[in-house]
């Protein structure tokens, strides 16, 4: 008799796990059942801002693999079906068919939890009004597009200034909106240090986006038809024809919590390196619903990012399918853009380093993406953080134009390999005038960091 | 009494060394004399193709620091002065003033040799004819521009298909020339494996550049006025109004050889890690005239590249100035472009790996520079070479459009840190749809390499 694998969640992590397991074991050895709440599988939520903005014209372009494709590989995929309970002792899950409302139990030999993350939606007056949109799922994206297509006014307010917030600001600008952004922190992009966030704010203001920080939203005001008409904060009121929420996400782990599975300080599932839920031989978890080890600080973090979800899925699938693979952890790399401004970070911010008890130096340099004399050489600011005494690289943040964003990969690899800033000054990076100054900006930052480390012996 | 530092060569390595030494020791402690054959200092030879092509409009834009700037820092800079002999036993150099022809001896306490490289110019009939140009120095660049400005015909032949050759092909295309490239190897870009070079050839052909490989130039035919009229190879004859030579360079070490200093198998000076010439306490050398340690193969190589020259100069200057710095070696990173095609490599080619006695697997994948659904997602081919058994990364070659070239830096850092391809699959690289597919192309290649390594246990 074959084993049965049950997967909860049919997006990146869940479907990657199912597909990889199927590659290793055919249907006679392993039955695979996937429960997915929505009508879609394997889609790129990260692509939604570009669909809204018009760079991507078709919703289906965001779908990497359709339900039909998965089913053709002997995966029993149940769409519009929500798992409502995990019975760990009984090795079974209860699922509700969202169309018919019927519920039934399905037993498993192996279980994969890939329930993703849920957008934060504070219980504010007006939060559910027409014209207020999140952008977490394809249905969210479609709803926002429908609103934009049918709204007369052109005033958009984006609440939140993280990756989704800034990407949505760009999308709305591209659709001809007058965009206001309100956010809690002192600067946008709180994943960066405030000095680097200030560069993002200045650039966004230069693009005509009005950015208001240190603002706590208290209400979403509505008109007589119940449509949103303004965003009210503790200090001002911003008229709005449409509001986009990009406040962040939390691991969607209510099921796991109810089942008594181990959760971390951010509410994400805790796993071992093989992505197996701690203490549970036959349950794995991956994607936006888990916490991951930060290799720089040595602590668990929650990072909702498609690239990690895909890796987790592959690893889980390999292990479930009888192979062997592990996920060593992350260094916290992220890259984004607002119009032509590229913003990237990896490793620890000053704040993170402090919270980890690390003493450090931080330096910032300005350089250019290409040789200074080459056309379109654009300014780039690189901030580098290194540990005191040892000089070990702790983090890098980059803000600039074309060529800035992916430069962070140099630091991501250096962090993974525990290089010191001294070692980084000698890195043999690609040089030619169209690609870099003779000293790559990352090397310039490393040289300044070396000096700072020496001065703070 | 102060020490005297003599520097032979006033381009990247020499002037960086002089400047760095001056930062550490003022004129009362260290006199600095620099002899430079040309009229220029600290210029970017790598920028010449972009000046010829018109992307850079002014010659002086290629000059990072002028003679006057150097002199203002108490550096005794003697332009148009050629060193003709190094007397190691007597700690002095003989120099000839190229204007007056007078020669004189200058004693040194410390000597830096930064004589650079000389272009290879085979003794072919017609090699010195009008219309035949090298592009090593600013004067060469000016001479070529003068020829292009005053030549009626629009047929250019580039001899050689290395970095300079392909960059000059682009420059000539930009100036409206009909460009033919003839070269010795089976494919252009012999710094890549032939399968990757073939992609470059195909792309160049698509740009209208006629590329002929396996061709040995036997003669440069001239007309009655003594101007070049055709390039003759062992198999064909190509009409030419102008010919650009990009055959490669050799370390310019005649002086060093005559002085009995140690040279390596490529004719470059051999130094220790502090860039001190082996066996000579008070002589340093850096830039295009030295051989450097290849950290992947463990052997010496000759690589003429401005970025290394600048690093060498800094390190020599620190050591000469009483500080301490070392150059650990290179991994062989290089990046270039022909029109919108980006070409990059780092580490070992298959041929190099074989020559080093390494057993390896090689894999090639195709992916895109951005998420597949994002506008302008361009195809990118990544070849990865990994050691058998250990899975250690040995080399990466990339050919693609925007975003391809600098991706090689990921591999450059991984090589420096001796990562295995297994470790590389878990790298936390920057992901967002405008910057990368959810699996970065380098990760896709690493995953395929892991499979190949396992299959060849």
UniProtKB/TrEMBL annotation, chains A, B:
Residues 336-438 form the Pyridine nucleotide-disulphide oxidoreductase dimerisation domain. Keywords: FAD, Flavoprotein, Oxidoreductase, Redox-active center. InterPro entries: FAD-bd_OxRdtase, FAD/NAD-binding_dom, Pyr_nucl-diS_OxRdtase_dimer. Signal peptide: none annotated. Pfam families: Pyr_redox_2, Pyr_redox_dim. It comes from the Bacteria. Residues 4-310 form the FAD/NAD(P)-binding domain. Its cofactor is FAD. This is FAD-dependent oxidoreductase. It comes from Nocardia iowensis. The lineage of its organism: Bacteria, Bacillati, Actinomycetota, Actinomycetes, Mycobacteriales.
